[in-house]
Each structure stands twice: as C-alpha cells, then as structure tokens.
Fold each of these.
Amino acid sequence: MSQSARIARRALSISILGAFLSTAFAEDHYTKSKEPVFPDVQAGHALLYIARPDFTRLIPEGTFKVFVDSTPVGWLPQRAYLAVQVDPGSRIVWGPSSATQRIDFQADKIYLLVLAEQYGQNRAIVGASWESGDPASVRNFVGGQKLTYVEPNKDSLVPLREEGEKKFGKKEQQAPEVHAAALPATFEKVWYRRSQHASAWKPYDASGTLTVTNDAIEYKSDKENFTIPTKDVKSISMGRLSGLANYGDEAPWGIVRYTNAGAEETVAFCDRNTRGGTERVVLTLGSVVKPEPSPQSTVADSQLEAAQEKHAETAAQPQANVQPSSVQPSAAVSSSEELVPYVGQKGDFEIALPKGWAAYDQSLLPGAKADSRFNLTVFYLSPNPVPQEAIAARFDEMSVELMTKIDTGEVPSFFFQKFPAKKGMSCDGFTEGAEKEALKVVTSGSPFGKGATILEAPHSEQVPVAGCKGLRIKGSGQPPKENTPQTIDVYAASDGSALYLFTLRSHADYYKKNIDVFQRSMATALLTAAH
C-alpha cells in the first residue's frame, strides 16, 4: 500500500471514529426529540427554557453542560434547546464557558435564556453569556431557529453532581445576589464603550459617572458626556464583549440599545468597583425602561425579539402575501432621500438605490461572462454622481483609494452575488440542509476564514427576502493580520435555479452607519421569480 493510500485510509478511519464518538456521546448523554416539546409549568415551580441557536463548524466543544445552582440539569448541543422545572428563588444558571447569570425565579412563571457565544483563533470559545428572551414567543423562536429539543438521559447527569457541588461556590461569587438601586442612582468610575471590539490598550473608552433617573440615563467623563432619554431605550441586556487582543472580556457589560435621530445605537457600561456592580447597574437601568421588560427578567434581547416577530409575521401570512422584505427603513431616512430603480439585472431581480449611487458589475469585463469569479456587482455612493432616472450596470475603472473605501465601508456600499442553487433552495424557502449550504457560502472566506478571530459567530434566521422566503445571515470577525473587525450582514433568496446574496460588509464602526441605507434598499428588492 502506498504512503498516500495509508494516509487517506488513516484519515478516513479518524473521520469515521469522530462521527461514531459524536453519535455515541449524544446517545449516552441526551435524546433528541423528533418534534418540538413545550411542557407545562409544574405547580409551585418555574419553567426555564435554555436555547443555543448558533451553529459553528469544527469547534472543540460541540456540547455544553448546564447547571442551575449546583444541580446538573442537561446537555446543550448546537441548535438545540431544553426545558427545566426550577424551584422558585434566586438561582444561578451556568455551565457554558463564562455564561453565568443569577435569576430570581417566581413560581408558575416561564423564562427563556439564549446562549450567545464568542469564538477566537482555532475556533476556541473565548466568551459566552446568557441573553433573556420573551418567553411568550418561545414557540416562534424555536420554529424560526429550527431548534431541536434535547432531554438528558438521567444516568448521564449523575457524574456531574460532584462537579456542580465543587464549582458552584465560585459561580456564586461571580453572580452575587444584587438588587436595583433606589432612584435617582449614581454610579462612580463606571467604564463605558460603544464598540464590540476593544481598543489596543484598554477594554474601555472612558471611565466616568453614570446617573440613572426615571427620565434619563446620563454619563459624564473627561472624554465624553451624553444623555439618553429612557423613552428612547429599546432594550437592556447583559453580555460579554471582546477584550484586549480580541480575547473575551470576562467581566459582564450592561448593553443599552436605543434610538438616536431614527438610527439604532448601542452603548455598554461596566462597574468593576464592587462584586456584582454591573449586575446592579443593569437591574437599575431595567427598572426605568419604558415599556418595562417582561416580569421574568429585567433584561431583554431586542434582536431576539425582532427575530421572533419576523418569524411570527411570516408564519401568519400565505406566501402570496409575503412582503418584498422583512427589513424596514428607519424613519430618519425614509422620506429624505430619493430612491432610483436599478435596471442592470432585471432578468433576475429588481431593487432601488439611493439617488447618486452607481452599480459596478464585474461581469461586464470583456471575457468575464463565463467566469464565475466575476459574478460580483457592487452598489456604492458615487464620488461623481450624475442625474439619472434609472441606474444601469457599468464597468468603469476604480481608483485603488475608492476600492479601499468601499471595502472598509467608509464609502456606503453593498454588493450582490449569484451562485448556482443547491438542493432545497427555492422561493418557498430553504430546507435545513440548504440553509447550512448558504451559511457555508457566506462564511467560506474573510473574516471567518483560517486564522480569523470570530467575534460574533455567524448565524442564520428565516426572514422574507425579495418577495421570497429567505435567510438573513450575520456575523463578525477579524481576519488574520488585520487590526479591525468586520461585520457581514447577508440577505439570501433563491428561485430554485440560483442563490442570490445581497451583502453588507463593513468594518464594524462603519456598519452602524451603513445598515439603514442597506435595509432601505433591501425593502424594495424583488426577485423575478416572486412576481
């Protein structure tokens, strides 16, 4: 037998062994249900749903252990959820990496915790946190994310009891019992930052005084002062951000999402002066938000709620009535900027672009039509706009400076690509296998390629896109040898013959500035197959 044959045979045997071990692990530790399971709340107990919607390939830890206080309650593989009956009282949910959260469980109430994961080099997890969702929408969330219910095999939990008793004391110190401060509340030496990615030298932008009243959240420091009216706050959540050198910051941050002049912005606070300081800040912030969060929790994940609402809207209406897109333009840009139809690829789709934009179509390069490498059309704000009633595709030479600004997002832009459709892709939606194929296409290169640092694990959700049932795929990462993270936000749709990808890719700071115009154009998109 040749050396290459021996290597191939060895690789095959390792692959088969890995698949066998993975299957054996699942069979020994938990059972997957073929249908979704939604148990009733047992009398005198609280019902806790724990979900893990993310899917990241080839990660070292495919399944996490989950504990409530010192008691092991189950196993949590990717794209799965479990349900646990919990005794009322203040309890700590922990297990997956640094995800540790104290919750005051009330009898006969339902709770939903969703695991948010951060991955670094070699796909090793560098941080995780629990984010609270609306328990009233758990059915829509499970259906929209295609989660599988898993139930632990009771014998598999027995060996974990010793681990739970041994580690619980440390977890209790990480999540001390805290309460909201009386208003008006002032917190000194509070860290503040706006970016998911830390600066090169310290994990915060400023240190100052945070004041919370019924009407406003006020922050004052030597570097920046601002006030956020509480009526503009959309959600309060607690999570972990990237630390120095892109490693997960072990300290929790209170994350505030709010609207400013029609655009959504995010700011985060961290109080390291006392143990449980950030938790107290989050509880205090949550006590003044209008509308108040659900009774089960003082934090809410606005992105999760948006995903649930989108899925509910999609499920409630027949396909013929699906709107061109689930995205809606913000009020700040909906009427102030004229849209112009793009007519360059009417055989495939229609879309409207802001006035002054141009379309750069690589396939118009001589000899490029038959080469799949040149299937990219870039829509961008032209430095030399000309009056026009319709925008046509063209292939003009771009300066290196302009291409660089487009690539980073400094010049507002997004791009379109067309690929052959895979099995299970159509205007009626994507099967689970087809959804994985689309995710693979989007994440095959930078900023998720070999050696990249994953800041937000790429994930997909089902949403209406261009008149069809499509996908939204989003994630962020930092390519190797680069100093700035990138965010990718993709709307995918198919007509059964082709896979259409509309992509916003920008440096993280520019993403927040470009997302509105991208969604505004996507709200006009319509595949020819959807007519």
Note: The first strand starts at residue 30 and ends at 32.
Amino acid sequence: MTEQQRIPDGHEIERKFLIKTLPQDLEQNPYSEIEQGYIMVAESGQEIRVRREKIEEEESYYQTIKGIGSTIRQEIEMVLSEEQFQILWPQTEGRRIKKRRYLIPQDGHEIHLDVYKNGLSGHATAEVEFPTVEEMEAFNAPEWFGEDVSTRREYKNQSLALYGLPTEKQQKKIESETQNPGKPTYSLEKGLAILHGLIVDKLAQTDKPIIVCIAGGSGAGKTTKITSMIKKFFAGQITPYEMDRRYRGATWMQEQAENGEEKNWDEPDALDFDGIVTDLQGLKDGRTIDVPIYDMALSEQNGWEKLSSKRIILVDGIFAGDPRISELADIKCFISVPLSVRMLRRLGRDRKRTELSLNEILDYFAEKVQPMHEKYIQPTMESSDLIIENEFNPAIEAERIGEDRSGLHPVQTKFETNISTRFLETIGAVPLGTTHQIDNYFDPDDRNMILTGEMMRIRREGHTWIFTYKGPEKKKEKEDRNYFSERPTLEFEITPATEKKFLNLFGNQRATIKKTRKLYELKGVVFALDNVRRVENGRTIYLGQFIEIRSNGNTPEEKIKEVLDLLGLDIRLGRKESYFEM
C-alpha cells in the first residue's frame, strides 16, 4: 500500500466549483458573514488579504497570505486584533467582497458554500479542502455542483474583488495585467500592509531571527513612518538596529582630512561596515551583542550597550540597501521620496538636532547629500523586494518644517489699486523706504507645487538672498480670517554660493517676479505699495500696482481693517494669491 501524498504544513489542497442550484434546507446549516479585502494581489497570483468574519454576534479578524497555485497553495493565516484590522482594512478599498459562507457536511468532508452579495449577487461557489492529493482526486461532487473552476483565475476571490463577475473583457484585463509585471511600488499605507504580510510569511518559514532592511534617502521617513509602524505591529518581537550607531565620528573625519581625504557624512565610508556586518550576523545567529552608542550632539561614539536578538532584526539606515548588508537580509524595503521632499524634511530635522544654520543645512544638502544619494543610495532601490512611496502631506508637514521659526504664519492680503503716493501722504502714511526685489519661483520636476498649494522661491533684494518655502493656506477657524491668506512659512537668508548649489538641483525656474516696493506705516500697520512685473519665457508682463498688507499675527485684524478703510479698500475684495499665482 503506497503512502498517501500529504502536503507540507502551511499548505492547502482545495477544489472550487460553480453551483447549479442551491441545496435544499440550506438555512439549516451553520453559516458566517464574511467581508474580505485584498491588500495586494501579485501578477503571480500571490495575495495578502484581511477578513472580518461574524458568527452570530461574535466577530473575528484574520490576515492571510496565499502563495502561487490553483488546487495546492501555501497559506499562512494569523489572527488580528480589531485595532490591527481597522488599520489594514482601508488599504483594501476597491478590492473587497462580501459573502455568506455555509458549512455543509458531505461524505466526511466539509463544503464551504459561498453565496456572494452586493455587486456579486447571484453568484455562488463551493470549496472543499482535502488532507491529501489522493482524496482530492477521488472526491465525488454532489449533483448540485456545477463546473470545476479550481484552475480558472477569473473565479478566484481575488479576481472577483478586483474585476467583478467573469466576462470576456475582464478575462483579457486579467491576462494583460499578469503578463506585464513591473517593479512592486506601493503607497505608504498599502506598502506597510504588504511589508507586514511579507514579514509574517518569513516568520512562518523559519524559527530563526530574520533581518528586515529599511533603506532610502535622508529624509525619506524610514524611522518616523516605517519602522515605527512595524514596531507597533510586532510589539515585543523587534530588535531595532540603527546603522547610525556605527558612524565613525568627527575625530575620524578630521583624521581623514589631515591625510588629504575629504569625507562627508553621507557616503558609505563614514560608517564602519565591517562592524555592522558583524553585529547583524551575531543577531541573526541569536546572540546578544555589544554595540556602540552614537551621540549625535557630539558626532562621536559614546559608550556601549547590550542588544539582544529577537525574532525580527529591523535594520534602519540610508545604506541599508548596500550589498554588504542586503546579503544578510531576508526582506529588503526601499522608501522612495521626491528630492524636494527630502530637502524640506532635512531642513526641518537638522535645524533641531544640529547647531548648523539653515543656510548651512541647505548648502550641505545641495553639495553633498543629493550627489551621494544619486551615487550610492538610489541604485540600491532596484535590488529591493518592494518600494514604498512615502508621500509628502504639505498640509501637515509644512507646519513641522516651519515651526519655531519667526514668521511661521504670516497673514496677508493684497489689493490692485491706482492709489498715488500723494494720497498716502494726505492720510498720514509715513514712507519707510523703497526696495527692488527679484523673486525666482521654482517648480520641482518631482511634483507640482501649484496643485498642492505650496511655493518655493529665492528672493534677491540688494545684496541679500532669501530662501522661502510656504505650505498650503491654512483653514480658518473664524469667518473673518477668510479674507487673509495664512500659510506656514520657512524663510531664511542664504549666501550666493548656496544659491548656486541650489540652482544645480532646481534650476528650472517657473517664473520671475520683479517689483519695486515702497513701504509705509499707518496707524501702526506696515503695508507695501508694489509695482509688479512678471518675466516668463523671455517676455515681461506688467501685472499692475498693488497694496499688500501682511502681519506675523501680532497686529489685530481690527487694526488692519481700520487702515484699509482709510485707504478706501474693501476687505472683501482682497486677493490672497501670490504675485506668482496671478
């Protein structure tokens, strides 16, 4: 007697059938209400899904990873808490099914009869699982079963969730998408869910520690967005390993300079890779290791600490995709972020944790950080298992970038007018001086700041250069404030050398605004009388004469309205857009 062919642990054998007619006395069988959605469906047929199942009044939640195959597939299922389910469920939007599942006994087997709802109403299938291949092949289907569709992808739940009930047109769409695979790139929320699924999959395949590498450029959000969520999902199972702890330090940098080698903090040589590899190998072997403590304020290693090995070694660093590290990795994830976003995040971050001026931070980013990114970091993206695009939310992040800076929320409004300087003198306006300004506005190739409501410019005024970034207009709590534009702002003086380096990154100017600005003071309110011209594509366009009133929030709006009345201006006719946007 030959031994029956059994499947390995973590696999399932099942057949799926269409239904001719529903069996009699169906409602006498136990059933559950199921909602399931798909976080990821790969071209190969692999899937990651989440499910909510309700039996009477009790709800259960699951995440399932299924491998390639039709009748025999690897399946890994884990129980979720309601909180975990609620985090993952939004990532299945547009890829969901709802059904009632009846459990029907049949000749020693259990039939899962699924009656679909909503957009799949009228569709029903039956699934039967088997412990061995021989039992699957010997199964005699009851008369109410229809066609065996086990090998037809269009009848899989993943296809029903993505494309609906099978049609010839939908079948062609499935074939087209599965024959044209691309590099897996996902949004932040969906990418996190898929990364979570990949980790669960790897943990199920081994009882040894696994290494998960999170790579990406400076300011990509590796620590704040990715590793923090992974730690939350796998609480108590994480050994965090920050590659920054192996920076060689300022003393080493100085020694290299004295030997004629100029090094910078954003190239691989700045880290002790031999030490990193040794650390990770020890952790992967399950050992507790001694690791250095790196002091960012001192730019030096400052002592040692013990680091114990747990199930997941989570490696975080700009060079986490370096081949020397990725050879040890079980999962490699790259966080992709546009250049302009990384620059703004770096400005916001380093002004808090370093003693550098904002000009020095911008200068260093343009001269060192971005060239090193292009040379050493960006190429490692191609060897990653998945790419997560960590989108920039300007409505939120502009606040963080600009916080604690003078002029965070300048309130302003402007009016087109033909008011003369003589009239201003008659109402008591005091002239404060005249200046000429040239504003160059920049349009990054990686995103459209006009659509997002942002603005980035460099202003030249005499022998002074000023960099300005403004976020989207803030929503007003009071109706009166709708007459004024209020935007988070980061503004600081830069040197001509920094401007030149900045132009190497963002030299594609969208437009130039030239204006002659006369400043006045009236009733304690300072305002400008601007004559404005726009230069674009070699053409100069006269925009007109405007009065602009702005405040950093210290001037009461009632006082501003009083001055506007003296100027004969109606606050309701004020314009909130910048000259660039006109």
Note: The longest strand covers residues 509-522.
Amino acid sequence: MRALLKASLYFAIAAVLTVVYALCHVVGLYLKSHYQGLTPLWPAAGIGLALLWCYGLRWWPVIVLGDILGSHYLGRSWAAGAADSLSQIVEALLAVGLLRSFSVDASFKRSRDVLLFVLLGCVPAALVGGVLGALGLYLNGLIPREAVLLQSGNWALGDAMGMLVVAPFIAHWRRLPFTSTHAFMEWTLYMLLILAAVAGISRLPDDVESSFYFLLLPLAVLAAARSGAAGASSAAALMALCVLTFNLNDAQDPFLAMMRIVFVGASAFTGYLVAAAFAERHAADAALGAEQDRALVTLQAIGEGVITTHADGKVSFMNSVAEKLTGWRSADAAGRSVEQVFPLSPAAGEQEAEHTVRHALMHGASSEVLSRRLMRDRKGVLRPVEGTITLARGRDGDVLGGVVVFRDVSEAEQLRERLVREATHDSLTGLRNRAAFDRHLRDLTTGSERRAQYALLYLDLDQFKLINDTRGHEIGDRLLVELTKRLRALVHKPDIIARLGGDEFGVLVIDANEQMVLLLAEELRRAVLDYRFKERELTFSVGVSLGVTFFSPGERSADVLSRADIACYIAKGGGRNAIHVYRSDDVSMLQHHSDLARVTQLETAMNEGRFKLFGQRIVRLDDAQRDRHFYEVLLRLYEDDKIVPPGVFLPAAARYGLASLIDHWVLDRSFKFLAGKSGHGIRLSINLDARTLDNPDFYRQVLEHKARHGVAAESVVFEVTENVALEHLTRGVTS
C-alpha cells in the first residue's frame, strides 16, 4: 500500500512538473520570437538541469514529455518534439554528469563551484544540446541546411542562459534558505529595491532605457553579499524577468538584444561569485574564530604554564597553570615585564646576567630550549622549571612577541631518578637487571684495551623451581632476596653482579686472573650451598651450578654469554652444584657442540624424510607358531646412503626434546602401515621415550591414531625400559 501511495505521489508531481516544463518551453519560444531569432533564455533547460542535479535522475520523464508536449502545442510534429526532447535530455544528463564528477556543490559556497558550474555545467552541455537540437530541426525540415550552424548557436545561447539563471534559483530555493526573520526581511528589501529600480528605468525614454540597466548590477551584488547564494540567484532571476521582458520593442534591435542577454548573464555570474566569496570569507572567519576559541581552551587546559609576551617583553597572557606556578593573576601580570612576572636564575640560584626570554626576543632566536632553571614565584619560593621559548613572527619576519611554555619539574626529577634505577636494576633484588648487564658486557667486548682479560660467571640455582612450585612465589621471592644479599657481599667493585632471569645470575669480573676467578666462583657456590632458608618449621636449601668463561675485547658479547650458558648447562648436567669452565678443547664441551649439531641434523632429516622404519620379528621360545606376525618396530636414519643406528642419534634427541616428536612420527607411520595390512594378523611393538609416555595427552593421541586409521587396539604394543617404569611406577599402575 505504501509503495502504491509513493508511486501515485510521484506520478502526480511528475504531471505537474511536466506541465510547468511545457509552459516554460512555450515561454522560451515567445522570447525568441521577440529577439529577432535569438534565444535570450530557455527556462526549460534550467528546470531540467535542476531536476536531475538536485532531485535525482528519476525525473527524466518530465524533460522528455515536457518537450514533446510543448512542441506539439506549438503545432510541431511528434517527431520534432521527440528530437527536441532528445537534445534536452542529453544536455541535462551531460551537465549533471560533469557537475557530479567534479563534486560541484549547488549551494555555491566556494568560488570553485561557481566557475565549474559555468564552465562544465552550462557551456559544454549547452553546445552539445544546441548541435543536437539544430540537427533535429534540420532533419524534420524546419530549417534549411545552411541555417544549422546559426540555429545551433542560438539554441546553445538560450540553454546556457536558462541553466545559468533558472537552475541555481531552483537549487537555492528548494527549501527556505533563511534561518531568521531578519535575514528574510533584508532579502525582501533588496528584491523590492531591484523592482523599484527596474520600474524607474522603464520610465526613461526608449532610446536611453537600455543604457541604464547596468545600474542594477550594484543592487545584485549587494543582494549576493548580504543574502548569499539565495540572494544572488533570486536577484538574477528577477533581473532576467524584468530586463528580458520589459519593453520588448527594443529587443528588435540585435545590438540592444545582445546587450540585454550579456547583462543578465554577467549579473548572474557576478552575483554568484560575490556570494561564494562572502561565503568563503564567512567560513574562514568562523574557522578562525573557532580556532582561536580552541586555542584559548587548549592553553587553559594543558598541564603546562603558558606565558605570551609582546615584542617589548611585556606580558600579554597567562594561562591558569602559569598563574598557579608564578603566583601572578593574568590580569595583574598584563603589561608588566617578563623579568618581573617570570624571574629565572640558574640551578645554583644566582641571578642571570640577561633574562632567557629577553635574550630570545632581543637576538631573534626562532626557538630556544629553556633548560632547567629556578623560578622564584611571587611569594619568593624557588621551584625548578624547564620548557621552551618560541618567537611569533609576522609575514615580514618581524618579531611580534614570544610564547613561553614551562613546567614544574620537581616531581619529574624525582620520577626520572626512580625510572633510571628501575630501568637498570631488578625490582626484587636490587641487583642490576639483564639489560644493564648486557650493556656492561657489550662495553667490555667493544673496548679498546686488547690485552685486558675479563671473566663471566653464569649462575643457575638448583632446586629453586621446586620451592617456588611447592611453597609459592612469595616464599621463593623472599629466598632470592636473602640469598642475593650473600652473593652481593662477595662481589666487589668494579666487578658487577646482576640478576639475568628468575633464578639465574651473572657476574662480570673486570681484572680476571683465572685463579682468583675460580676462587670467587667457589665462594659463590659455597655461599649458596651453606645457605638455609627457614619458613616456620621447614628449612630449605638450594644449590647452584656455575659456568665460567674468559674473554677479551674484540669478541662478540652474544658469543661470550653463550659460552658461559653452555658451561653452566654442563655443570648442571654433571650432577648440579658444580663449577665448569668453558674450554674449547674440553671433551664435554665438544660433546655438547656435537649434540647440538646432531639435533639440527635430526630436524633436517625429519623434514627431508630420511627416517626409515624396519620390522624385526619377535618369536616366542615356547611356541614358534604363535604370534608369527609379531614385529618390533626399529627406527633407522639414512645419511650419505648409510644407515645410522639409533644409539648414535636418539640420546641427543632425548636430551634436547626431540624424542617425543620422533615418537609421534613413528606412531603415525606404524598405524598407517597397520591400516594397509588389516586382516593379516600383524602386531607391532613400538619403543617409546619416557617423556612421550609421561605426556598427559598421550592416551588421547593414541586413540586418535587408532580411530583415524581403523586399527585394532590389540595390534599395537608399547615398550618402555625398566628404569622408566620404576621412575613412574605410580602413574604406570594407575594407567
């Protein structure tokens, strides 16, 4: 029902607009008949452009039907009416397309919009419409061939004038453009003045009347300046109505007729430009006013003091923060010298020879940093301040004044000291943190003293994680704090001790004599071993593993730290609570590097598919016929077309966490093999690492393999060594 009502409303409005359009078609022909073949203004062209531009393309039928009806009313054929409608619709669509492509605003608030409207919306479209219209007349036998060019020009002139005068009027008056009664009454007054002027000019003798029409231009400009685009378009429409229709006898003179047309067009264009210029000026003034208001609010809202001065150093403005810091009210400080309101002295408190702000004003520095100074407020209290001084300059480069932005840095200085310490020290133990330690290590390795000898001790507490997990982090933190005091007492300047991680510490020995370094390492180890931490009725003790490496300037700090870490790892792996010194020819160190290389090779082999599975039959001693297809799965590695036995690579895989990954690879391949041999009664025995079995997700993962491949549970047996079973006896029995 709603759609039907909307459609009915559309057709009703379209019918009314079509009639109006057809009447305007007739009016245009009427004017043409009095202007010796010239078309001074074609209102229908302006209506068509306004409809499509402002109200949408759905009103195109009004243009087509209006032209056909207007032509038929004047006795032309339907074909001639169709040709007219074609030229008008193409003209309107072209104009709208160009205007929308360049985002021309119909409100004419910018000079750009006025210029583009004339150059894109009126001239090109009118020329195209004129050519099409003249060709239509020629094809329908209404004009001879030699008159096509002249008729094209006349048609284009009328359409351009119609679009220039009528389209803006409709665009600006589609809704009431005035928001106040005063503005509406002012516009009415200007329109009455134009009418009165036209009436007065029309009473002049016929031979001088046309010469005085140009006196209407100031009134049109005044209406545009005071009432905006709506005033300009209404003044243009009113003058077009009066100038083009009054005393039509003068229009018989081609020169006077053209003068009238030029005057109307020039008046309209001038009025639009004036309205746009004033609109831009109002917009700029409003933006400037808003910017000034925002600037004032910003100055009052920011948390720093702001003082502005004139070029002579007299204070002109102070925000509320500046008032609070200096003790001066802005009204009282205005006109006083900046030295009186904002007295400064160096940090020591003595008076400066020349005030910093005055120096900037006198010597013309564009911007100057106000480094830490002591400011004496109005009550005589000194407070540390810092900020900037910026000069304001005019377009000619002359200094207009200065802007001082400053802040009280009393709290900032205290905060800076605290932040510097927090950035370089551990918050729990008070030792240097990892970042500070790395920086010191980097300074030592990049030093210029090539003969210097340094040492790095890497400490890792043993069994600390057990205390943390069983008694909580609060107890662990207290233990670290107390233990750190013992360690710090053993490390003397210039040596450096730092906390590198949760339970890891580092010591840098500057003058590294090997005997003294090992003695220090033993003292640290003994201090940790002898320490007892009491919590109520419980007593806790921890051990420490130490890795030691020596280095000189020119080495990479990362390499030095890595060597100490490796040495600590070997000390921990050798039974904990031990000291290990990194030496390049150390057997355990070589084994560690070999294991690391082997781990890398294993990862590459797995990615390249160089692991292979073999089956070794398991035969029962009591009955060889039972379990004839029972096999143990054997894992082998191919390297350089040779088989590498598992004893070579599995220990390294177990130490570095690759055993579980390899076990899952074996499980996946074994289940796939069984899936392809279903019905043959094959059973497989698979050896697994203890960490694989100990994984809580192992049971679920096996069930997923079983379900995915459709393998019976009795087809798979898992093997584990006796020592692993004994270590996990409780879980093994429960499972």
Note: Residues 254-301 form the longest helix (48 residues).
Amino acid sequence: MGASEWAQLALYLIALLSLAGPLGRYMARVYSGQGTVLSRLLGPLERLVYRLARVSSDGEMSWHQYAFAMLALNACGLLAVYALQRLQGGLPLNPEHVGPVAPDLAFNTAASFASNTNWQAYGGETTLSYLTQMLGMTVQSFLSAATGMAVLVALTRGLARQTAATLGSFWVDLTRGVLYILLPLSLGLAPALVSQGVVQTLRPYEAAVGPEGPQTIALGPAASQVAIKQLGTNGGGFFGANSAHPLENPTPLSNFLEVLAILLIPAALCCTYGELVGDRRQGRVLLASMTVLFVAALVLAVWSEQQPNPSLVALGVDASATAVQPGGNMEGKEVRFGPALSALWGVATTAASNGSVNSMHDSFMPLGGLAAMWLMQLGEVVYGGVGSGLYGMLAFVIVAVFVAGLMVGRTPEYLGKRIEAFEMKMAALVILIPVALVLLGTALAVGTPSGAEAIANPGPHGLSEVLYALSSAGNNNGSAFAGLSANCPFYNVLLGLVMLSARYFLAIPILALGGSLAAKRKVPEGAGTLPTHTPLFSLWLLSVVVVVGALSFVPVLALGPIAEQLAMRR
C-alpha cells in the first residue's frame, strides 16, 4: 500500500474526529431547544409543522407515550412504502413503466427502510419507479434516521433528569432532527456529489452504444437519495450496485465525502451526549472507545485486502503492487478505489448501521469479511446507526458499571443514578436480542430446504453468506454477501421480521430504561463511585463489549470465515 492510501486513511480519521465536536455541540443546542444559526430561517417552518400536526413545542411524554408515537409513525411509514411499491405501475414518474413489486419483496423492502436497515434484495433501477424512490425510500430515510436520534435523546434526558415522569416529545424531537440536522446536511452534500458526477434528473433512461453494442444507461434522482442514505446511516442505493456504481459514486472525492458522511453524525452524537448530560468527558470516553474498535477492525481489513488471493495467484494472476495497479485482492473492487479505500468503506459501513458498499463484500478475503461481520455482531455499537449505535453502547455501559459494582461490593451508579434490577434487565434485552435473532435466524436458514437452496457456495463460505445476511438484518445494517440468493419468499419474510424485531424490540427497552432513570433521584458521588470518564473505564468498557461479542459469535465464526481462511492458506 502506497503513501497516498495511508494519507487518505489518516485524513479520514482526522476529518471525522475534527468535525464530531462542532457538529455534536450544534445538535445538542437543537435538541435542547436553544437557538442555532438556522433558527431564524427554519423557525417559522418548524412552528408551521407543529400547528399543522397540532403539537405543542413544550409538550412532554412519558416513555410509554413516546414509544407509542414512535411505533405509530413507523407503522404508517411501513404501510406507505409497501403501498407505493405495489401500486407504482399506475402512478406517475415511472418513465420505464416498471410494474408492481412482488408482495414478499415489497414487505421486505418496506420493513427494511422503516427499520433504518435498507437491506435491498432488488436492483433499484430495474424494480422501482422514480416516485417510489423519492417519495418512499428517500422520505423514509429521513424519518427512520430521525427516529433513532429521537430515541437516543429521550434516553439521554432520562440520565440527565431526576424525579421526572417524562422524556420530552417524540414529535418535537423528530421534527427538529429532520429540519435542523438531516435536511441541512443533505442539502449541503447533494450538490457536492452532483459536482462530482452523481446523477440527479427525472429524464428517462438513455440509450447508448458501448464496446459490446447497444445498452441502456439508468438515470434518476440519485444524488438526493445518496446524501441522506449516507448521513442517516441508511445505506439503500439508488442503483443495484450501490456506491460501486459510477453514477452514484464516480470519483475519489465523492468516495471520501460519502464515507465521511456515513460516520459523521454517529461520531458527533457522542459529543452531543456529553453536552446534554452536562459532562463532556462522558461523550469523549464513548467516542474514544468506539474509535479504538474501529481502528482495530480497519487495520485488519486493510491488511487482509492487501494480500493477494492464493487461488488467483495459482492461476497466474499478477497481484503485486506496481505503478499501474494497486496489487492485493482486487476481486469485486472498483479500480478507482482499490483495496485500501474499499476496505475503509467496508469497515465504516458495518461499523455504522449503513450497509452501503463501494465493493462487493462477498469477494473480500476471509479475514476482511470477518472484520465487517464482527463489527455488526457487536451490536452496531462502534459508532453504529444514527442514535441507535450510541444507545446500544450505553446499554453496554450499564452492564459494565453493574459488573464493576458487583466486583467491589457497591451499588452500581452511572451519572448519579443507581443501576438496579430493572435497568439491567432492559440493558440485557438490548444486548441479547440481536444475538438471538442472528444465531437463531442462521440456524433456521441453514437447517431448512428453502434457506439452504439459496446458498450459491458450499462449505464455510456458504455459511458465511447466511451468517452475514442474518448479522446484517439482526443489527439493522443492510449490507450483504452477494452470493446468497436472498430475493425469495423465505428470506424476504425471514429477514423482514428480523429487521423489524431488531429495531423495535430494542428501541422500546431503551425508552423504558430512560423512563426508569428519569424517575430516579441523583445521588452524590462518594469515595467509592466508579469514574466513568477515565481511560481505565474506557478499557473496561471495551473489554465488556469484546467479551460479549466473542462469547456469542466465535463458535460460528470459526465454522465460517476462520475455517475459510485456514483452508485458503493450506
């Protein structure tokens, strides 16, 4: 790997961590109702939304009411996206005259976009009309991202407040997240992508003559969807090839902007959290912990993808780095990005619950695929999805504090709140539900004829394909090992149910946890209080996250990517 690739990796980390602080503080002002630089411009629009929805900007909700509002909005979004897909053949903005989507695929896609997973068992340019892409997928990308951020803010208020019965208003948090955060950032990113060649048009597809004869060039309003798919950690591509498509990610600069957008808000939310709980150090220790895990996975993936594939070398393929080729494992990768930047994207998209790809993860070396899979299996807490990643990490914080308290014989406390049986039960649900969904779903898929017949590759790699799909759906990621033929009724229904369960069976315990913590009175720090803002606590938190992930998934990983790696090196 040359100096240019190293410089780009370093620049990426520097840019990400440098922007996290200012954006995090801005978002804290948004959610606390303080004025921002956009208040004069967007304030009238915000108040108009409240009047039309008959919502009070000062209203408060109990955690039960907050959860009901969240579920009601998301259920309406799911039904709307399903209806759009089924009826698109008779609706406008359908220049290619695509017909209705099959019921099982329509359910899978609606569940995917409602849950912020954006798993795609279809090619966007051949399956969906422009109207469905814009009104269904793009709008839902805004709402699902804002939902995750709202749930995080509600939990944060539970930690910051005392003897309170409410967590804020879901409708207010949702509106502010869209108007002041997601929409302005998307309006800034989309034109930048258009300047690099990302297509944004309502014209019909173009006919052209290529080297192999006549062909059709798919077009559409892609840039507007690409911007929010990255910023909202959605990941759903306008085209089937996702961000490997030259009209969705044409240049190294567009690649840098898109992969930076993937982790920007999740990283900044750590700083937002510190501001809202009144102790910036709490946010910094969480950001540092996530960054350590991210860098470790990045090093493994980059190193792995720089290695040549022994199977191809045995056939006489020259995989060495020269002045005209980057070397390493170039299978399934775009020449304009190469192994290093493909590995960076692969790690970033699975660290976040994004799922977009600029290369084919199915063609990664076994350890490169393992790095991506492992980041998902940790529960998407290494930055994670917007909102959901941080509230997942806070569940691990609760467990870490509880275990540390047991070790020294003291009642565990976090930010002055006693951690008792109810809090531990809710945190345990948040951590264990994705594990159960992934492992049980994988067992069901490989143990039934309908699931097994969709596996294109026998042996360890076939198991990895199924495990990756369930890890992706069970942690609301959305990326895939493309060798699995997942567009069939069995996988469409199974993965759809898993995606919905992974989203809402976690969000509800998180809100219950926030409600319980809000009702507690803060206790003063004592000599035996565990400091949760120190490097030592960061190390303890990392140990808890890694141990839980290792105990849950090492056995099945040993049968999949680890066995494949050992077989490759024989």
Note: Residues 235 and 356 are 4 Å apart (CA to CA).
